[in-house]
Amino acid sequence: MSAPQPYATEGDNSDFNTASLPPQVRRKFPWLRLGGTLISMSLFGLSLTGYGYATEDPTIPRNWASCFLLLLIGWLGLFEGITAWLANPTMGAAWLFAITPFRWMSFGLSVLAMFFALSFVFQRDILVNEAGHRAQIVALGFGYWIWISSMAFQAIWCLFDYSVSTRRGSP
Question: What angle separates helix 142-168 from helix 87-97, to the nearest 10 degrees?
Fold first, then answer.
């Protein structure tokens, strides 16, 4: 027979199990479990304000690509074989699974999204206009690295959440 957990109630299998907190705090602040997911979403939103990469175009030196525009039209890169954009829907699914009882799926999807996003590091050139002109990628911007950090943070948060919930006896 195991020792009772502090502040744990019998049969407390709620989706927001923060058993280390007093019961009155658990009832008032069930969103504490989602804190890491909200931080990850905030990092993603912050990444949209930056630049993703710079290309070396003979007419425009250091032409920076806006992350917000890349989110909107980046899916066209799939036709070029650039799989990095698949990180966005994969990360969206990871955030959705973070609020379900299948939170372990959020970890797997976060890691998969990070691999998709990191695949862009190996991209040497990219299509820059509708005429089919290509330009060499010369730098990765602040927005790209914040985008990666949002995925990494979600994966780390999932591991933390899993370790806390298994210690407390919650699924």
Answer: 30
Q: What is the DSSP string of 29-62?
A: -GGGGGHHHHHHHHHHHHHTTSEEEEEE-SSSTT
**CB–CB of 148/40 below 8 Å?**
no
DSSP codes, 91-113: HHHHHHHTTSS-HHHHHHHHHHH
Q: For residue range 66-81, what is the model confidence (pLDDT) as tens digits?
A: 899 989 988 888 888 8
Rounded distance between C-alpha atoms, residue 43 and residue 163, angstroms: 23
Q: Give the Cα separation of 99 and 146 in Å (integer).
A: 23
SS3 76: helix
- Distance CA(76)–CA(126), nearest Å, equals 11
Q: How many CB atoms lie within 10 A of CB 106?
A: 27
- CA–CA separation, 142 and 140 (whole Å): 7
pLDDT tens digits, residue range 123-145? 998 887 778 888 888 889 999 99
| Residues 6 or more apart whose Cβ sits within 8 Å of residue 152 | 110, 114
pTM of the full structure: 0.75
